[in-house]
């Protein structure tokens, strides 16, 4: 355990720590973020009205839309000179969700990640191989900083170039692998294809996150790579990877409760649900300085497990999210909203905004196909195949740059995509996750 | 001679061509010539039919994306060099043929081709002047 005094603190002790931090956080947002002042005032609630952690339910929610409306920095609770890092994630209509960190925020995040790495058995003698993307995405740098704080030998391999990754495994002695579960499977398959003996590898554990995966995938990764595979959860709005993490019991992810207070709510009514019930996960950041979101609606559907864990940690566990309360898809670790594709199609006069997304997994990598209905405009200026292919390519470029992942575009005849009454069925997800 | 060609966008899936040609058959239109330009996902079916408008309406009623274009129909001698000669004439006069395909010809010593040329009217004028 990295921080036994916190990770295994008594629940009463933890409640005290949480409440003290919560009050400070509420004052911080009320005094510094116009949106929170306005919203608290509208609800008729002041920071000091919150007398215990249970009073959280008296506060209004924060939504992803608030981050978009306040793009890029209007939700920050500190002056920009205190911000030392910016990360961003893709969002609808191409507008990114921007998050900021102070020096203290980065330190807190590193502690969260170091706890996760420790829980997976990492020590300062381990070679932590980070194959998440380095950049605006929180995965790479988030795990990197935590590994360095732990004192592990950190290998910033980043994504791609699988042959080189495998060479690094063998030459540098990577022992803890951090990447998306689908990439871990792909690495495992490539190792088998290239007949690299597992004895040549020093891998002992892996920490995988940023996209949904199943128990079957876990078993396959564990067999193919000869490791124990651990789950990690996070979202950039809260901090990035390390909001919660699995221990050796592999039975739910312990939430870093000294920093993030979880609630489960009914996504329809917003009412708080008791422990054990399934609903939407909501987090309140109590120690963050730059972007302390209050009651942030993650849209992830999960459950909180209050039972004591055999590992000795007292942090509540959350179940691996089993779905979304909105239509977000996670493809190759990237958040994709169907509405992003719609907004691109609306800018192209030769096609109709009728589309179908087909998500699949080939060789353990997610694939995205976008079927788009053409209209007669496409034939007006020319009936040459080249002309139509150019339009298809134009759509592809726009969609790829909006989503941040590559999509295959298939043009289809008008009226060939089924129309539905009520909510349109726009996604066919053929990935077998359950 | 300038004639109307119908272009139809069709998905590349089995049976689709039969369905589309059936629509034309049901409209009572006879197909005089056709060609398909295909890619892995879609094809452009180009047709010369009698009663173009009737066929176009029928296709549109079935929800297909249709357009009509002016193309040049040329009669050439059915002997070696017949086609090369007319293409040479067009290229010497700086016309670009984007695509072409053959027609069913009812005469023994004549072949007929359909050409999509950038400036169809001008090209047709040149061909008529040159005895085609």
3D structure, described in words:
- The complex is a heterodimer of chains A (434) and B (132).
- With 434 residues, chain A is α/β, with parallel strands linked by helices.
- Chain A has helices at residues 4-7, 11-32, 34-43, 64-69, 103-119, 138-150, 162-173, 181-193, 215-225, 338-345, 377-380, 385-403; strands at residues 83-89, 97-102, 127-130, 153-155, 176-179, 205-208, 228-235, 240-246, 253-255, 260-265, 278-285, 296-305, 317-318, 323-324, 329-331, 334-336, 351-362, 365-374, 408-412, 427-429.
- Chain A folds into 2 domains: 4-326, Rossmann fold (3-Layer(aba) Sandwich); 334-429, ANL, C-terminal domain (GMP Synthetase, Chain A, domain 3), CATH 3.30.300.30.
- Chain A contains 12 helices and 20 strands.
- In chain A, strands 3, 4, 5, 6, 7, 8, 9, 10, 11, 12, 13 and 14 form a 12-stranded mixed sheet that branches.
- In chain A, β1 (83-89) and β2 (97-102) form a beta hairpin.
- With 132 residues, chain B is an alpha+beta fold.
- Chain B has 2 domains: 2-68, VC0802-like, CATH 3.30.2130; 70-129, VC0802-like (2-Layer Sandwich).
- In chain B, a hairpin with a 3-residue loop joins β2 (31-38) and β3.
- Classes of the chains: A alpha/beta (434), B alpha+beta (132).
- At the A-B interface, α11, α12 and β19 of A face β1, β3 and β4 of B.
Please specify the SSE layout and strand pairing.
The complex is a heterodimer of chains A (434) and B (132).
Chain A: H1 4-7, H2 11-32, H3 34-43, H4 64-69, E1 83-89, E2 97-102, H5 103-119, E3 127-130, H6 138-150, E4 153-155, H7 162-173, E5 176-179, H8 181-193, E6 205-208, H9 215-225, E7 228-235, E8 240-246, E9 253-255, E10 260-265, E11 278-285, E12 296-305, E13 317-318, E14 323-324, E15 329-331, E16 334-336, H10 338-345, E17 351-362, E18 365-374, H11 377-380, H12 385-403, E19 408-412, E20 427-429
Parallel strand pairs in A: 3-4, 3-5, 5-6, 6-7, 17-20, 18-19
Antiparallel strand pairs in A: 1-2, 7-8, 8-9, 9-13, 10-11, 11-12, 12-13, 12-14, 15-16, 17-18
Helix pairs in contact in A: 2-3, 5-6, 8-9, 10-12
Chain B: E1 2-11, H1 16-26, E2 31-38, E3 42-49, H2 52-61, E4 66-77, H3 82-92, E5 97-102, E6 110-117, H4 120-129
Antiparallel strand pairs in B: 1-3, 1-4, 2-3, 4-6, 5-6
């Amino acid at each position: 355990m990295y921080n036994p005094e916190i990770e295994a603190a008594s629940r009463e002790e933890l409640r005290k720590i949480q409440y003290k931090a919560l009050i400070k956080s509420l004052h911080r947002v009320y005094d510094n973020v116009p949106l929170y002042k306005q919203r608290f005032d509208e609800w008729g609630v002041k920071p000091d009205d919150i007398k215990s952690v249970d009073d959280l339910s008296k506060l209004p929610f924060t939504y992803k839309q608030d981050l978009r409306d306040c793009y890029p920095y209007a939700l920050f609770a500190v002056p920009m000179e205190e911000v030392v890092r910016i990360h961003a994630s893709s969002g609808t209509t191409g507008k990114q969700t921007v998050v900021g960190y102070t020096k203290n925020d980065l330190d807190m995040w590193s502690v969260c990640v170091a706890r996760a790495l420790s829980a997976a058995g990492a020590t300062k003698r381990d070679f932590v191989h980070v194959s998440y993307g380095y950049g605006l995405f929180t995965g790479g740098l988030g795990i990197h900083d935590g590994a360095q704080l732990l004192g592990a030998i950190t290998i910033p391999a980043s994504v791609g170039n699988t042959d080189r990754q495998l060479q690094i495994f063998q030459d540098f002695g990577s022992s803890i692998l951090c990447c998306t579960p689908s990439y871990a499977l792909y690495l495992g398959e490539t190792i088998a294809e290239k007949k690299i003996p597992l004895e040549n590898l020093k891998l002992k554990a892996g920490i995988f996150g940023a996209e949904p995966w199943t128990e079957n995938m876990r078993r396959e990764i564990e067999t193919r790579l000869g490791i124990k595979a651990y789950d990690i959860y996070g979202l950039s709005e809260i901090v990035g990877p390390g909001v919660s993490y699995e221990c050796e019991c592999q039975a739910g992810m312990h939430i870093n409760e000294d920093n993030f207070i979880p609630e489960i709510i009914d996504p329809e009514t917003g009412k708080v649900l008791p422990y054990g019930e399934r609903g939407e996960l909501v987090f309140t950041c109590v120690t963050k300085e730059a972007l302390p979101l209050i009651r942030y609606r993650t849209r992830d559907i999960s459950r909180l497990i209050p039972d004591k864990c055999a590992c000795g940690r007292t942090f509540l566990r959350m179940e691996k999210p089993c779905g979304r309360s909105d239509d977000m898809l996670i493809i190759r670790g990237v958040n994709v909203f169907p509405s992003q594709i719609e907004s691109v199609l609306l800018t192209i006069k030769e096609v109709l905004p009728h589309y179908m997304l087909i998500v699949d997994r080939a060789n353990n990598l997610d694939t995205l196909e976008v079927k788009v209905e053409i209209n007669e405009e496409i034939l007006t200026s020319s009936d040459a195949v080249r002309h139509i292919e150019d339009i298809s390519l134009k759509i592809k470029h726009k969609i790829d740059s909006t989503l941040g992942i590559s999509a295959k575009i298939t043009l289809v005849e008008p009226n060939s995509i089924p129309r539905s009454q009520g909510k349109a069925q726009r996604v066919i997800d053929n990935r077998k996750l359950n | 001679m300038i004639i109307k060609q119908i272009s139809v966008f069709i998905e590349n899936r089995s049976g689709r061509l039969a369905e589309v040609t059936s629509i034309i058959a049901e409209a009572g239109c006879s197909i005089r010539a056709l060609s398909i330009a295909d890619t892995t996902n879609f094809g452009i079916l180009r047709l010369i039919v009698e009663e173009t408008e009737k066929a176009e309406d029928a296709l549109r009623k079935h929800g297909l994306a249709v357009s009509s274009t002016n193309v040049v129909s040329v009669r050439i001698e059915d002997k070696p060099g017949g086609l090369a000669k007319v293409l040479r004439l067009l290229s010497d006069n700086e016309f670009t043929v984007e695509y072409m395909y053959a027609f069913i010809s009812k005469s023994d010593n004549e072949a007929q081709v359909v050409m999509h040329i950038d400036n169809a009217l001008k090209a047709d004028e040149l061909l008529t002047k040159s005895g085609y």
